[in-house]
Structure formats: structure tokens, C-alpha cells
Amino acid sequence: IFANSLFFYLIISFRLFGSSVVVPIFEELFWRSFVLRYIINPKFEDVPVGKFTWISFVIASIFFGLEHNLWLAGIMAGVSYSLILYYTRSLVVAMFSHGITNLLLGIYVIKTGNWQYQNRTRLVFAARYINNTFYKGPDVSERYNFQYHDNQIVLASIAYSRQKYYKSNLIYGFGKTEDIPIGGLVQLNMGLEKDEFFRRFYLGIRYSEGSYYPKIGYLNFHTEFGGLYYHKDLEQGVFKLKGQAISNLHSFNQLKIREFLSVNYTRGINRFSDEKIFLNSDDIWEFSSDYLYGIQRLSFRSELVAYTKIHIYNFKFLFFGFGDLGFIGAGSKFIFNNKMYSGIGLGIRIRNENLVFKTFQLRFAYYPTVPSDFKHLYFQISGENYETPRNFEPTSPNIVVFN
User: Fold this and answer.
1) Do 364 and 379 form a contact (C-beta atoms < 8 A)?
2) pLDDT of residue 173
3) Exposure string over 30-41, b if 16+ CB within 10 A, otherwise e
4) Claim: this prediction has a pTM higher than 0.85
5) Which region holds residue 27: left if phi is over 0, alpha if psi is between -120 and 50, else beta?
6) What are the Cα distances from residue 204, in Å, to 195, 232, 238, 284, 308?
7) How far apart are CA 368 and CA 370, in angstroms?
8) Tell me, what's the pLDDT at 115?
9) Alpha-carbon gap, residue 194 to 126, rounded angstroms
10) What are the tens digits of pLDDT across the range 194-204?
């Protein structure tokens, strides 16, 4: 209907601008300016732009490629942009090269009509004002009890997102048809904080990508970094990395089997002395302790689900097993040098469409190593907790939370 109309050409121009200008700037800031240097030294601001090491070069190139649908072409592009950065020592040249690549690809797509995303694409500008005033609270100082400081924060953001859906079932819910989002998001947040003790500039970036591969399954990747700058030094910084893989359904006799894998890493950068994170139930199922805290945390979660054809008086049955691992410790120590905590278990979910509470589950877990405030065994009967698929919608301007 809109072909060859003014509206059509405006949409095409908008998409070309997003893919060849906005995306290259954000991706190069994250991958070539941040990730390449962060792998070399977590205090990445001390590492010169364009410094070469084989480890950072290989890891960044591979992960840059994996978050693209055509992963091999993505890896080769990541290698090329990194080599350009190493040769020129200029992030601007890498951005320009990335932009030219995306522009040429966009022109090819327009000419051939081979659209990868028949979906909603948006460029969003937003602003936000936050006023925190405490009339009563604990004692505070410049570097203590920051969460109780009186402050005003003005934030602005620019975000580019693209998203579509594919239909599936037996992923996040038991017995539901689901729309699973795929696409990507890059969002830059910036602003000024006027605190009762200081004034600081904030800069943060969020990057997400999700794809469906017919031979593999669903993969998504989310990362964000942000921090406040005081006298040109980064403080209260946060780096987060999350990844998830969901396999296709596999048939085995009378069963349909699906695997779920996820990884979650959080690290604080120059946090205040009283700020810390805990190992909790988001890392190991129903696990929590007031004694396990630190500045960085890494967890791996896995679940194998078997959907059966057993029907007894309209009751349907699903069996599952899970295994989770978690590490937490100080920022000065390699994360895998910390003590490992884990949890393993089995469970069953039962569903009946005729009941008010249609699904409930029984879950048993064993924790081989536990702190003094937690037990080795855990049993729970509960309703099914539906997870929400990660979408690629822009959020309101925000400061990355250290949790």
C-alpha cells in the first residue's frame, strides 16, 4: 500500500539511519572501546584504545559474531573492525567502517527486497528527572550509605530497537502458545547527578540481541555498563552480562525434551566500601545467604524438561531436572578462584485446564556446599512461576543497578 509513497521512503531512510549511524556508534563504543579493554584489565579506562592482546581480540570477535544471525559473517566483521582499530588507533575510523558496511548491506537489502526484519523498528529519545529526598534516615557521609543521599538526577537517552516475534510453545509456560521476541536494542543513557556531597556525570550503555536459529533454538544476549564520573575517575560502575540458550524440542520415545541454559555475570567497578551484591535465588534456585557477598558474581543455570503424553483425569505431567552453579567474591580475585556453590534437583509440574490454579509444581533440591545459615535440602510445592521473555523495547533513561 505504501510502496513508492513518501511514507515508504521516510521509513526506509529512518531504518538506514539507524543501522548505518546509530548502531555502529553504540556497538563500537561497547565492543571496541569497552569489551576489548575490559578483557585486558577490568579498570579498562587505564588501557589505551587500540591495545592488542590475542585473548581480547579473539574473545571480542567471537562474541561480536555470535550475537548476529549470520554468526560467521559477524565474526569476520568483528575481526575486521578490530584490525582497523589496532592499525589506526582511532575509534572514529572503526565506527565509520562499521557504518559503511551496514549502509552497503542496507542498500543491498532494499534492492533485493531480502528483509531480515519485517518488524517494528524505532528510534526513541527520552528524558527523565529523579528527585530523592529523605526526611528521616541513617547517618550518611560522602562515601557511606549512598542509597540514603538526597540527590537530583537528570537523565536522557537515545535508543534504537528492532523487534519481531515467532510463535512457539512449551518454553516459558506449560501448555501455552507464546510469542517469543527476537531482534536487538542499543541504548545510550547519560545525565548529571547533583548529590548533597558532589556533582557527577553519568554514562551508560545497554546492548541486547536475540535470534532464533532453526537448527539450534533460541539464543539471547544482554549486556550493560554504566558508571558515574567524578574528577575524571569512574566510580560506582557496573558491568552486567547475561546470556540464555533454549534448544528446540527433541522427541525421545513418548517424550518431548527441551534444554535451558543461562549465564549471568555482574561486576562492580570502584564501588563504595559498603556496597556489595549477594549470591541469591536468581543464581541458584531458592538459594540465599547473608554471608555470601562480594563485588563480582558469576552463575550458570541449566534445566532439562521432559514433556509427557500422560493424561490422567485431564491432568498433564511434565518432569524436569536442574543444576546450578555460582561464584562470588572480591573484585581483586579471579572469579573462578572463589569457592563454588551449587544446587541440583528434580521436579514435576502438573496442569489441569479445569482448575482455577491451572499449574502447580513439586521441586526437590540438594545443595552440596552451604553456608551456616542455609540447609542442604529444600522441598517446595508452589504454583508455576511464568517467566517473561526478554524483549527489545527501549526503557526509560536509567542508571544501571548494582544488584
Assistant:
1) yes
2) 67
3) bbbbbbbbbbbe
4) no
5) alpha
6) 18, 15, 9, 28, 45
7) 7
8) 52
9) 20
10) 999 989 999 99
